[in-house]
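Extended Data, panel c. Modelled sequence:
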Amino acid sequence: MNAVTAATPADPSTFGERLGVHYAVGRWSSVNDDLPWTPSPRSVPCMWRYRNLRPFAIEAAEFVKGDAAALRVITHLNPAHRDYEAACGHLYSGLQVLKPHESMTCHRHAASAIRFVHEGQGGWTAVNGDRISVNPGDVVVTPSRLWHEHGNDADDGLVIWQDCTNDPLVNTLGANFFELHPAGTHLDPARRVDTLATWGGLLLPDTRSRQETSPLHAYPWDKCHEALTTAARAGHHSPYDGTILEYTNPATGGPAASTIGCTLQLLQPGERTTTHRHTGSVVHVVARGEGTTTINGTDFEWSTGDTLCVPSWAWHSHTNRQSRDEAVLFSYNEFPLMDRLGLYVEEAYTEGAHTEGADVEEAYAEEAAAGQQP
């Protein structure tokens, strides 16, 4: 048996520095950052007012042109990580403007994208050969690695929509790709594709293939809102979200995008939901109405067009401030990813429950709210 080598005398004062030379660290020294007792997201609650950012989006359309216009988007930054282009968690959000008779070169990327249309007539998106006309309230899904392009056919007037993507997640994983179509467009005039006509009805084609990517790319506002109000009349209701329905892949019943969930929820006049929290971040876009979302004790008062975010594990509730009219929120979230990883947890608020990091979040929230007030 070999003799035991005598241990070097411990020197805690220089231990970290000496160990760092070898690109290593004692885990006990970073346990609060890397091994928290409860979920500790970087993002904090925040809201971006549409009326404040819309003029900037329109101004940018006057000088960002040509190929650069494909990325002419006003990105929503979370005040807790301005250097990390995510609105909340690993979800990206930004406003894009299309001028009359403007179109963008066909491209594809690894990230999945969802677009919510704020305003304008004449806008269109083409996904995997399907050229889709879009109107306010419509939702278009661009799955990962599918060719797509978009533009504005109107003679007058802007089209403004919101880009909702998981670019931050894909970038963090080191898996993003971006590619321009060699021909500039992927559309074939001789090939007519209409995914809404094929997959948007009560009766569907053969779904036994269980394809992961949704074959349906367009979710028109009128059909979705009708489904939402019908569900509300039928008594479909959650104490935490009001009447809420999910945009789904009709072939599988799963989420419209494999790693991003999106929903449409209705709050009745005067309704206040029960406070709860869950793992997974959510970005809300106000489709209609006025209300208040309370996140970790801070009130964010919103109106049509505004965007707000609820970080993972943050207590939150919604209130429709209107006494006569409904309020409708479009939202996208990280839930599909959480489900696949077995990490989704949800709980209702009970007396005595406390908010971790409330002081820090409140400071950021006050800063964000102050910057967005008239």
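The longest strand covers residues 92-98. This feature is highlighted in the accompanying rendering.
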